């Protein structure tokens, strides 16, 4: 196989014109620890609150800011903003913990934490776009609160309560139904379904946020699951390590440590959410034998650049949290202002790959509408593919030939007319390469074609 001079020239020209997306990322994006920011925010917004209260998750939960009247005493809001936000919270309520509020830079209207925590008029302005339940979770519900979409795992939605109502939430539709927690009878119906379905080996406990339940109530669910022989893994989806890290206390960790393997999937979106408190929460979980993964959502103005995402993921590794998924923001009504193009996510992954450890790079996924499931979307590095070999480009846009092991050998100078290369379906990111007649195979397994 050969690549024509024209194609190589095109590559060289493109290479000269464009630098790979991550080229400006150098080594570790070391961030200053945020202890100062957290402490300053607390001092500025909640100077009277003693440590005993501040470090008590129940105090934090009880003292969530839920009205515009409370908010405007803490964060500067113009009269117009106040009027607009009162209209917004009528449809999409407000809830933010003192801890999370203290991370906001109150002088910056474009602050990444503010965007996630505080309402915006765009939630209504663009409300015509998107749908309430883009993933069709209702359609895949087998009993109330139990979603069975993939063969070996189910999602248990235990409550619609959350400590912070994240403005980009996929389950925003649930916010208007008042606070609810599944009853004992509903939970028993879920357990029954799982008992009867031996293919289910993996349970995701979610919400809302399941850590809004008391530890004893949560233990009843987890111990019920652990009595089912074919349940292997329990995962808990929670944003508490980020928005109310005080919740990860000894009582919770001791309980979780009895029922492993339990994994926690949490949800950091910006490096400034990594605080001494959140680091300690993740450390406590790890010491209780609970690995912590992160699922971030790609959000405009929060984490939609290579630099921001690299800082976030490197920060997560420093607190021993594995970046797991980067989600394209779902097509949810009231979140359109957060959504970016799919290409933005691909470029972020492309800009990180090769420039930082693979351990720091999440899988970018699009959760398909109508329950189609998660699809990984990656930059395409295999530019051409025939039975005998592949042409890869690396993170620096250098091209390499790679012999496909086990493929039938072609006679020297052999020629197979009419064979088509499999061209990348992702042609916007990797421009299409012209396919040329296959020529004699070289001896090397890997040849550098262009540097
Ligand atoms: S914690 Fe999760 S479920 Fe709750 S509002 Fe935030 S994104 Fe939605």
Spatial strand sequence of the major β-sheet? 1-2-3-4-5-6-7-8-9-10
Bound molecules: iron/sulfur cluster
Spatial gap, N to C terminus:
18 Å
Radius of gyration: 25 Å
Anisotropy-based shape = globular
Q: So how many helices?
A: 16
Q: Structural class per helix/strand content?
A: alpha/beta
Largest sheet: 10 strands, mixed
Helix content: 25-40%
Low-confidence stretches: 1-20, 23-33, 414-451
Say how many strands there are.
14
**Helix and strand sequence:** HHHHHHHHHEEEHEHEHHEHEHEHEEEEEE
The average pLDDT score comes to 85
DSSP strand content: 15-25%
Defining key terms:
451 residues; alpha/beta; ten-stranded mixed β-sheet; four-stranded antiparallel β-sheet; 16 helices; 14 strands; 15% strand; binds iron/sulfur cluster
Summarize the structure.
The protein is of the alpha/beta class. It is 31% helix and 15% strand.
Report on the architecture of this protein:
The chain has helices spanning 5-17, 35-45, 51-54, 57-62, 68-74, 79-91, 98-101, 112-117, 122-125, 184-196, 215-226, 240-243, 250-257, 276-287, 306-318, 342-352, and strands at residues 141-143, 146-147, 153-157, 202-206, 233-237, 262-266, 292-298, 322-328, 363-368, 373-376, 382-385, 389-393, 399-403, 446-450. It has 451 residues and is of the alpha/beta class. Among the domains are: 5-20 and 380-450, no CATH class; 35-125, no CATH class. The strands form two sheets. Strands 1-2-3-4-5-6-7-8-9-10 form a ten-stranded mixed beta sheet. Helix 16 (342-352) links the parallel strand 8 and strand 9. The longest helix is centred in the first third of the chain and has 13 residues, at 5-17. The radius of gyration is 25 Å and the shape is globular. Residues 1-20, 23-33 and 414-451 have low confidence and may be disordered. The structure holds iron/sulfur cluster. Iron/sulfur cluster binds next to loops.
């Amino acid at each position: 196989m050969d690549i024509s001079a024209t194609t190589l020239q095109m590559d060289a020209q493109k290479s000269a014109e464009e630098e790979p997306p991550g080229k400006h990322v150098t080594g570790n994006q070391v961030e200053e620890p945020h202890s100062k920011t957290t402490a300053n925010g607390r001092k500025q917004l909640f100077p009277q609150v003693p440590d005993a209260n501040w470090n008590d998750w129940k105090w934090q939960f009880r003292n969530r800011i839920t009205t515009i009247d409370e908010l405007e005493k803490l964060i500067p809001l113009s009269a117009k903003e106040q009027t607009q936000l009162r209209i917004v919270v009528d449809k999409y309520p407000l809830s933010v913990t003192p801890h999370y509020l203290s991370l906001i830079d109150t002088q910056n209207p474009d602050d990444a934490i503010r965007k996630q925590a505080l309402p915006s008029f765009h939630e209504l302005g663009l409300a015509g776009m998107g749908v309430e339940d883009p993933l069709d979770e209702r359609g895949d519900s087998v009993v109330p609160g139990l979603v069975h979409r993939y063969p070996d795992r189910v999602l248990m939605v235990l409550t619609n309560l959350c400590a912070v109502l994240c403005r980009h939430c996929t389950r925003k539709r649930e916010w208007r139904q008042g606070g609810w927690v599944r009853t004992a009878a509903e939970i028993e119906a879920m357990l029954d379904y799982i008992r009867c379905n031996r293919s289910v080996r993996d349970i995701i406990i979610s919400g809302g946020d399941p850590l809004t339940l008391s530890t004893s109530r949560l233990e009843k669910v987890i111990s019920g699951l652990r009595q089912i022989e074919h349940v292997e893994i329990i995962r808990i989806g929670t944003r508490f390590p980020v928005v109310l890290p005080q919740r990860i206390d000894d009582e919770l960790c001791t309980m979780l440590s009895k029922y492993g393997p339990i994994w926690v999937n949490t949800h950091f979106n910006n490096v400034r959410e990594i605080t001494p408190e959140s680091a300690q929460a993740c450390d406590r979980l790890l010491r209780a034998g609970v690995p912590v993964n992160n699922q971030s959502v790609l959000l405009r103005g929060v984490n939609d650049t290579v630099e921001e995402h690299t800082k976030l993921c490197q920060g997560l590794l420093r607190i021993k949290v594995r970046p797991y998924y980067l989600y394209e923001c779902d097509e949810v009504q009231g979140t359109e202002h957060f959504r970016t193009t799919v290409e933005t996510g691909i470029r972020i992954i492309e800009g990180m790959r090769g420039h930082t450890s693979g351990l720091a790079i999440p899988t970018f996924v699009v959760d398909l509408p109508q329950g189609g499931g998660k699809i990984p979307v990656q930059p395409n590095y295999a530019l051409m593919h025939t039975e005998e070999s592949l042409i890869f480009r690396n993170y620096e846009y250098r091209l390499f030939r790679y012999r496909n092991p086990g493929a039938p050998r072609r006679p020297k100078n052999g020629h197979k007319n009419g064979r088509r290369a499999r061209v990348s379906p992702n042609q916007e990111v990797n421009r299409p390469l012209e396919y040329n007649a296959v020529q004699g195979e070289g001896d090397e397994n890997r040849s550098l074609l262009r540097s």
